[in-house]
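Weekly structure sync - notes
Attendees: PM, LS, DV (DV joined late)
Agenda: review two folding runs queued last week.

Item 1: First target. Sequence and structure tokens pasted below for the record.
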Amino acid sequence: MNLVKRNPEWFGPASVDLLFDRFFNDSLQKSPNAFSPKVDIAETASAFEIQVAVPGFSKGDFNIDLKDGKLSIAGERKLEKESKEKNFISIQTEYGKFFKSFQLPDNIDEKGIEAAYENGILALRIPKDETKKVESKIAVK
């Protein structure tokens, strides 16, 4: 028996618009070997926090760099190959390489950045350096 997922978006008056939208937007933005994980960014009084949703990774699968105030996060999740024992019917999780970069403000403590991976979330804590206040007053002319 073969399972076929029915997608209600494929039917109805918007289906042609959806087809063109997916073709032009998705095909230009995604590579078959890359994906873009979801990211949450928060600021507290003492730090910036970044959480990247990347389930199925191991701690060693990440490459995190900081250069010239730019934080870069990269990783790769390889697709498990089908075998005689396992035949994939549907694959909805994302596989391949990803790359995210963030321009950090000047008032951070670069040496205090911490990263942890737990329950599919890569969490980075970027502490602020209170001696590097980023404030300026701009006069209106």
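Item 2: Second target, run right after the first with the same settings.
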Amino acid sequence: MSRHRQPQVLEIEPPSELHFKGPFSEVVTSHLKLTNPSSQRVCFKVKTTAPRRYCVRPNSGFVEPSGHVNVSVMLQPMDSDSQDKGKHKFMVQSMFAPEKVDDVEKLWQDADQADLMDSKLRCVFEEENENKNQSSSESPPSIVPASVQQSLQAPDLQAELKSIMEECKRLQSENAKLKQLYDEAKSKPSPASSENNKIQKNQQFTLFIILAFIMGVLLGYILL
């Protein structure tokens, strides 16, 4: 009568898939975290169906009670169109360790199959061009609130904003002409120069009031 194996005592992260992101023309590393939530010492071994493709460090060892071990899985350089990529799998095998261990390899060789616990993970390969296509297809998030975007898209509001901007340009042009006249009058002193200065100041103050009003209206429309 066959005996069922025990459920895996180790908590494995990630639990079912190891992801490798290209380019695969250089070493690509993924990581496993093995956590032992029990009060007993656990020994582990990491196996793969493609041992020539990977370097695992450490590939075996012990996880102390309430402790964890980080395992690095390094995929060696390979062709991106390799046909066997979809067949790569890993298995984390574990068992409770005796109090004293003299020979780890002999421990695994003599282990009762019923005492072994294992978890299987499949390998997932992400091509570099797939990552680029996905990132380029996603539009960058807008920093403008949706309500403002909708308001700015309204035809009436766009026409109003255009009219306000044209008015601002006209007033700026007039202000430039007034400044030119003021500079000319200033370079040619006359009895009426003080009166001209007063008129110029009044005109500049009036222009400032108009510009402030227009900008207030503009901001009011945007913030609606």
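Discussion on item 2: The beta strands are 11-13, 17-21, 28-35, 42-48, 54-57, 60-63, 68-75, 89-96, 117-126.
Action: LS to circulate a short write-up before next sync.
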